[in-house]
Structure formats: structure tokens, C-alpha cells
Automatic annotation (TrEMBL):
Protein name as annotated: Acyl-CoA dehydrogenase
Signal found in the keyword field: no
A GO biological-process term: fatty acid beta-oxidation using acyl-CoA dehydrogenase
Cofactor dependency: FAD
Domain Acyl-CoA dehydrogenase/oxidase N-terminal: 77-163
Keyword Flavoprotein attributed: yes
InterPro entries in the cross-refs: Acyl-CoA_dehydrogenase, Acyl-CoA_Oxase/DH_mid-dom, Acyl-CoA_Oxase/DH_mid-dom_sf, AcylCo_DH-like_C, AcylCo_DH/oxidase_C, AcylCoA_DH/ox_N, AcylCoA_DH/ox_N_sf, AcylCoA_DH/oxidase_NM_dom_sf
One Gene Ontology term of the molecular function aspect: flavin adenine dinucleotide binding
Length: 478
């Protein structure tokens, strides 16, 4: 028997595995399909209800500490640990590490995890419950791909076990960080140590009491003539002397406690020489290796967020207590058009993301750069449109804390900025597409020449087919 909140069709519940888009089905294993259905139930039945408990536990921790930052950020909601335990019982752990590159994960492809990530994106707690939350996912990939055995043992193992959390520190307040060649936190060698000085901000997860390791990008080789070889990535334990978290940044008014986004300074922070990842001057390689599949994860969670917005939208349209001008909102045609547009846009965006995931699976993130950039731009824009329509249908409630839509909007909006703003991806896509321009001009010209030759063979001369230059009354039967 179907459970009401699992209904996703007028006739009842169709499991997630049976709703996999046709185009992706041949690439999904039976095991992944079974797991997908478990993920769906876990999220709908356990995580979404637990989101309310999670928010209340953070609030109560804040109240107990008289609403200080330490209160909201000093707490670790116990409901998360209960969900983690449950997720492990269900076999839902570390699904994000793709099987063709890492032995440490749960053995799924990027496509298979992408399908699961959509459901995780419907809840605030689900990703962390399954140890699939950013920024740890990308950070674990860094350790798994580039870490030494020692680094893996010290940091990757506890991260894979969900015992600690981590942060990735690239962005700086004083420079335009979407161009990472600008990153200037200084990494200087002194004897057996690296010494770090500078500032970082938007360090997501740094507020979490369990965040023990920072992966930091800085400039170690300012004199290297190749500007892509000046930066390095280095590991810095969060409790190293000289580190100060000055404040936590808000996202459109939300503090994202207990993980948060830190503004941090480094004042003569010293770490041993073996803290460097991959090697001096190889920061760009590490950052690029980290961001590929991570962008797909964000995009798939955003698809889930859009589905959730549509669900709330439909619930409001059919609320018998709210009938503007005597009719359910669903009887007002304009709303159904908005529903239809949302359906089309979500389904189209999902296909693009799955296509990118398949492309990564069949090669690697580098072979799918175009597809990844496309979804990086397409999906957040789609999400904003769907959220906006749902929010509008709720009137005042839509922008308040009484629906999840306001928080989803804040989170969704940041996707147009994080991991490179839209413009950077658009510019890259536009540039690459434009490379065909000259070849296309030549081809079109050749086709025109061939058309004139063909006309001659049929005994004709080229004419304006619309006859727009005809003289009135002459030669036309019209
Ligand atoms: C919620 C959130 C979480 C984040 N988490 C992290 C994190 O964990 N770690 C981390 O290091 N960073 C993080 N960031 C930072 C994020 O990655 C940066 O904000 C982003 O890369 C842009 O850098 P910037 O803010 O310095 O903007 P800038 O580089 O100053 O760019 C400003 C604007 O300029 C425009 N622009 C940039 N390049 C071009 C171009 N080529 N053509 C035309 N216009 C352009 C864009 O509109 C862009 O938004 C996070 C940000 C947010 C909002």
C-alpha cells in the first residue's frame, strides 16, 4: 500500500527506479536501482521529517547559549547521528565516490549516484546522513586522488567514516577569486615548515565543531612565469595556532548553522613540509580535479530541490482552504501553465545532468567539460524559475519561514556563484562554440556555390524565393 507522502502520480506511488529517464536506464545496474528506491524512501519518510527536528535542535542550542554564535555553531544536532546510523543500516553510505576511480566508495557510477543525489537534494539532512555532503565529498576526492598514504590514513579514513568534517579554503575577500590565479594567501618555506599568511572567506563547513581539516589554496611560487603554477594546495589542521575565525557569513540572511561559511585569517600558521598536496605549484591540478563531479552533485541535488518546490506548489494549488476569487488556485489557468512549464524545465534539466554524468563515467571529468559547464549554468537558473512560481502561489507564506521555499531560494541562488560564477562557464562555452565560426562560414559558402551549380543543372538561375523584390503586377500569380 502506498504511503500518502510518497504519492508521485495520480494513480499512486511509482518507485524512483521505475521513473529513471529512458535514456539513462541502460546504464543503471539492478543494484543501483534497488538502492535508489531505498534512498527515496529514506529521504521521504525519515530525512524530510527529521529536517524539522534538526532546525529546532539548532535553535534550542542557540537559545541555551543566549543566541550567541557559539550556541548555533557550537552544537551538533543529535538527530544527524541517528540518521547516519540508520543510513548505514540501509547501506546508504559514501555513494558519491565513483566506482571506476575509487575503491573506497559504495561502488556506484556518477550516473547512479546522480540519480540518488536528486533525492538527497530534497532534504537538509539527507546528504550528511549518507556521508555525501559537500564540501566533504569534494575534499574526500582530493585525498583519495592526490593524498599520500599518510594523509589518507589521517584524514580520508575518518572522513569516510563520517567521524570528522572538512573545509576547502580557496576564496579570498580582497581579490576576484573566480579567477584563481589571483589567490594570494602566502605559503612560504621556512626550514622544515610551510608558513601561511593571509585571509580566506566563504570557507563552508568551517563553523562545524567537527571540522578538523582545512584544504587551503595559496601562492607558494609567486615568481613562476607560468601563472597556473604559482599556487599550491596544502593541508592545515583546523586547530593550528595562528588561525582565527573572525565571523560567519550569512546567505541572504540565513546563517547555515551549524556548518556555516567562515571568514578566516592565517597569521604565521606553520605546518610540516609533508602537508603539501601533490606538489608545490600544482594547486590548479588539485582544484580542477576536485570540481568536476562535484558540480554534477550540486546540479542533481538542485533537481531534487526543484521537484520539492513543484510538490509544494501543487499542494498549494489544491488547498481547499485557500480559494482566491472563489476557486482553487488549480482552477486558475495561469497556474497550470506555470506547473506545466516547471515540469518541462525540470525534466529537460535532469536529462542534461544525466547526460553529463554518463559522459564522465565513459571518460572522466575532463572529457565532459562542456556538458558539466552546461548543467552548471542551466540547472540553477531552472531552479530559480520553479521556486519563484511556487513562492508566488503561496503569497506571503511563500517568502516566510512557513514553507521551505525561502531557504531553498537562498541556497539555490548561490549555485549561480559557487564553483565559478555563471559568466565564467558561459564565456568558456561561448568561446569553444565560437571556434566553429570560420569553418561554418566556409561550409555555408560551399553549400551556396553548390546550390547555384545545381540550379544551372536544372536550367534555372538563382532568384529571391520570396520574390520580395518583385514588381507589382508582373510575373506573379498571387
Ligand atoms: C554559499 C557559498 C558557499 C561557498 N563555499 C565556498 C567554499 O567552501 N570554499 C571556497 O573557497 N569558496 C566558497 N565560496 C565562494 C565562491 O566559490 C566564490 O564566491 C566564487 O568563486 C566567486 O568568487 P568571488 O566571490 O571572489 O567573486 P568575483 O571573482 O569577484 O566575481 C564577481 C562577479 O564578477 C562576474 N565575473 C567573474 N568573472 C567574469 C567573467 N569572466 N566575465 C564576466 N563576468 C565575470 C560574475 O558575475 C561574478 O559573480 C562560496 C560562496 C557561497 C556564496
Amino acid at each position: 500500500m502506498s504511503v500518502p507522502y510518497l504519492l508521485n502520480d495520480a494513480k499512486g506511488h511509482i518507485p524512483a527506479s521505475e521513473r529513471i529517464p529512458v535514456i539513462a536506464r541502460p546504464f543503471v545496474s539492478e543494484r543501483a536501482k534497488r538502492t535508489l528506491d531505498i534512498v527515496e524512501r529514506f529521504v521521504e519518510e525519515e530525512c524530510i521529517p527529521a529536517d524539522t527536528v534538526y532546525l529546532q535542535q539548532i535553535k534550542e542550542a542557540g537559545d541555551a547559549a543566549k543566541n550567541t554564535v557559539e550556541g548555533r555553531f557550537g552544537s551538533h544536532p543529535s538527530v544527524i547521528e541517528d540518521l547516519k546510523k540508520r543510513a548505514r543500516e540501509l547501506g546508504l553510505w559514501n555513494m558519491f565516490l565513483p566506482k571506476n576511480h575509487f575503491k573506497e566508495g559504495a561502488g556506484f557510477s556518477n550516473l547512479e549516484y546522480g540519480l540518488m543525489a536528486e533525492y538527497l537534494g530534497k532534504s537538509m539532512t539527507a546528504s550528511e546522513a549518507c556521508n555525501c555532503a559537500a564540501p566533504d565529498t569534494g575534499n574526500m576526492e582530493v585525498f583519495a586522488k592526490y593524498g599520500t598514504e599518510e594523509q589518507k590514513q589521517r584524514w580520508l579514513t575518518p572522513l569516510l567514516n563520517g567521524e570528522i568534517r572538512s573545509a576547502f579554503l580557496m576564496t579570498e575577500p580582497q581579490v576576484a577569486s573566480s579567477d584563481a590565479t589571483n589567490i594570494e594567501l602566502s605559503i612560504r618555506r621556512e626550514g622544515n615548515e610551510w608558513v601561511l599568511n593571509g585571509q580566506k572567506w566563504w570557507s563552508s563547513g568551517a563553523g562545524d565543531v567537527r571540522c578538523q581539516i582545512y584544504i587551503v589554496m595559496g601562492r607558494s611560487s609567486p615568481d613562476n612565469p607560468n601563472k597556473y603554477r604559482q599556487q599550491s594546495v596544502i593541508l592545515v589542521p583546523a586547530d593550528t595556532p595562528g588561525i582565527t575565525i573572525h565571523r560567519m557569513l550569512s546567505v541572504l540572511g540565513f546563517d547555515d548553522a551549524p556548518h556555516g561559511h567562515g571568514h578566516i585569517s592565517f597569521d604565521n600558521v606553520r605546518v610540516p613540509l609533508n602537508s603539501m598536496v601533490l606538489g608545490e605549484g600544482r594547486g590548479f591540478e588539485v582544484v580542477q580535479g576536485r570540481l568536476g563531479p562535484g558540480r554534477i552533485h550540486h546540479a542533481m541535488r538542485s533537481i531534487g530541490s526543484a521537484e520539492k518546490a513543484l510538490e509544494w506548489f501543487l499542494a498549494r494549488l489544491n488547498d481547499p482552504a485557500k480559494k482566491p476569487f472563489g476557486e482553487l488556485l488549480s482552477k486558475h489557468g495561469i497556474m497550470l501553465e506555470r506547473v506545466a512549464r516547471s515540469r518541462i524545465e525540470i525534466d529537460t534539466a535532469r536529462l542534461s545532468v544525466l547526460n553529463a554524468a554518463i559522459k564522465i563515467d565513459q571518460g572522466d571529468a575532463r572529457t565532459a567539460l562542456k556538458e558539466i559547464a552546461e548543467v552548471k549554468v542551466q540547472v540553477p537558473s531552472m531552479l530559480m524559475d520553479v521556486l519563484d512560481r511556487a513562492m508566488q502561489a503561496y503569497g506571503g507564506a511563500g517568502v516566510s519561514q512557513d514553507t521551505p521555499l525561502a531557504y531553498q531560494t537562498a541556497l539555490g541562488r548561490t549555485m549561480r556563484i559557487v564553483d565559478g560564477p555563471d559568466e565564467v562557464h558561459l564565456l568558456q562555452l561561448g568561446r569553444n562554440e565560437n571556434k566553429r565560426g570560420d569553418a561554418l562560414r566556409t561550409r555555408i559558402q560551399a553549400q551556396r556555390t553548390r546550390a547555384v551549380e545545381l540550379l544551372a543543372r536544372y536550367g534555372m538561375k538563382e532568384q529571391d524565393p520570396l520574390q520580395l523584390n518583385r514588381v507589382s503586377g508582373k510575373g506573379s500569380k498571387l
